[in-house]
Design a protein that fits this description.
This protein is about 15% helix and about 40% strand. The protein is α+β, with helices and mostly antiparallel strands and about 280 residues long. The protein has four domains: about 55 residues, Nucleic acid-binding proteins (OB fold (Dihydrolipoamide Acetyltransferase, E2P)); about 60 residues, OB fold (Dihydrolipoamide Acetyltransferase, E2P), CATH 2.40.50.140; about 55 residues, OB fold (Dihydrolipoamide Acetyltransferase, E2P) (Beta Barrel), CATH 2.40.50.140; about 70 residues, Winged helix-like DNA-binding domain superfamily/Winged helix DNA-binding domain (Arc Repressor Mutant, subunit A, Orthogonal Bundle). The strands form four sheets. The chain has a five-stranded antiparallel sheet with strand order 3-2-1-4-5, with no helix packed on it. A five-stranded antiparallel sheet has the order 8-7-6-9-10, with no helix packed on it. It is globular, with a radius of gyration of 24 Å.
C-alpha cells in the first residue's frame, strides 16, 4: 500500500521524455517521478526509494529528495510565508508545508522555526502540519518496559526538564537534573524508558539503567583506546562537555566506568589521560 507523505519503494513501469512512472497500485495508478529526480541509469522494473506527496496542482507525485519530516513524525521547520489561510513552512520540498491557523497554538511568524507534527488532513486530503500535538499523542495505551530503547523528540522545555515525544506516540519527561549534552526543541535522539508510573506518565533517561550503561560505555572506551593507539586525552578530571563530545555520556557515568576498568587493570589513569594496558 502506498503511504502518501512517507518514503516508499516502487517499481518503474514506464519511461517518458519528462521522467518515469512508478506503480502506485490500484488507488493511485501510475505516479510520475519527474526527470530531474530520476537516478542515472534507471531502467524499467528498477525499484526506487521515493517520497510521495502532492504537488502544487494537488496531484500525487514522487521525488527522490528526502523531506525534513514525514507524515506521522515531528520536524523543526522554518516559516517562510504567511497568508489568510495559514503559515507555510519549508520542509525541503518545492511545495511548502501548510500549517492552517486552526492548527497553530500561537500565530506563526515568517523567519522563525517551529516544531510541527505532520499528518494527513482527511477533510482536504492534504499533508499539513500542526502544533496542537495532543490530538495525535497519547491516543494509544503505553505498553513500554523499563529499560526499553525509544526514539525521542524534544518538544518542550519545562521547569522539571524536557517533555519528549516517545516514538511519536506518547509523552515522556527527561528530568533536567539527569540530562547532559545540549538539548533543544526539535532535537531527536535515542533514549530509554526509565519508569511508567501508575498514573500513566512516563519518566525517561538518556542512558541505560544500572550496570548496563556502564558495561556499554566500558566497551566503547576500550574500542576508542584501541583505535587511538592506546591513549585518550581524557580522564576523571576532564570537563563534562569534553566527556560528552567523546562518549555522549555524563561525567558521573564516565568516572564510574573508567574506575571499573582501572580496577580490572585494563587501563591506567594518568594526569594527561587514560592508557590501555595490553
Amino acid at each position: 500500500m502506498i503511504k502518501v507523505g512517507q518514503m516508499n519503494t516502487l517499481p518503474v513501469v514506464k519511461e517518458v521524455d519528462f521522467g518515469v512512472f512508478l506503480d502506485g497500485g490500484d488507488e493511485y495508478g501510475n505516479i510520475l517521478l519527474p526527470k530531474r529526480y530520476v537516478p542515472k541509469g534507471t531502467q524499467l522494473d528498477d525499484e526506487l526509494n521515493v517520497f510521495i506527496y502532492f504537488d502544487s496542482e494537488d496531484d500525487v507525485i514522487a521525488t527522490t529528495e528526502k523531506p525534513l519530516a514525514e507524515v506521522g513524525d515531528f520536524g523543526l521547520l522554518r516559516c517562510v510565508n504567511t497568508n489568510k489561510v495559514g503559515a507555510f513552512l519549508n520542509w525541503g520540498l518545492p511545495k511548502d508545508l501548510l500549517v492552517p491557523f486552526s492548527e497553530q497554538r500561537i500565530r506563526m511568524q515568517e523567519g522563525r522555526d517551529y516544531l510541527v507534527y505532520l499528518y494527513m488532513d482527511r477533510a482536504s486530503g492534504r499533508i499539513v502540519g500542526t502544533t496542537k500535538f495532543n490530538k495525535f499523542i497519547d491516543k494509544t495505551p503505553a505498553r513500554y518496559k523499563s529499560g526499553e530503547q525509544a526514539e525521542l523528540t524534544v518538544a518542550e522545555s519545562t521547569d522539571l526538564g524536557f517533555k519528549c515525544a516517545i516514538n511519536g506516540l506518547h509523552w515522556g519527561l527527561l528530568y533536567r537534573a539527569e540530562t547532559f549534552g545540549k538539548l533543544f526543541i526539535g532535537k531527536k535522539l535515542k533514549g530509554y524508558i526509565k519508569h511508567v508510573r501508575d498514573d500513566g506518565k512516563i519518566d525517561l533517561s538518556l542512558q541505560k539503567a544500572g550496570k548496563g550503561k556502564v558495561d556499554d560505555l566500558a566497551e566503547k572506551v576500550i574500542t576508542a583506546l584501541e583505535k587511538k593507539g592506546g591513549f585518550l586525552p581524557v580522564n576523571d578530571k576532564s570537563s563534562p562537555e569534553q566527556i560528552f563530545s567523546l562518549f555522549r555520556t555524563s561525567k558521573a557515568t564516565f568516572k564510574k566506568t573508567i574506575g571499573g576498568l582501572y580496577k580490572q587493570r585494563k587501563i591506567r589513569i594518568e594526569n594527561d589521560g587514560i592508557y590501555l594496558i595490553n
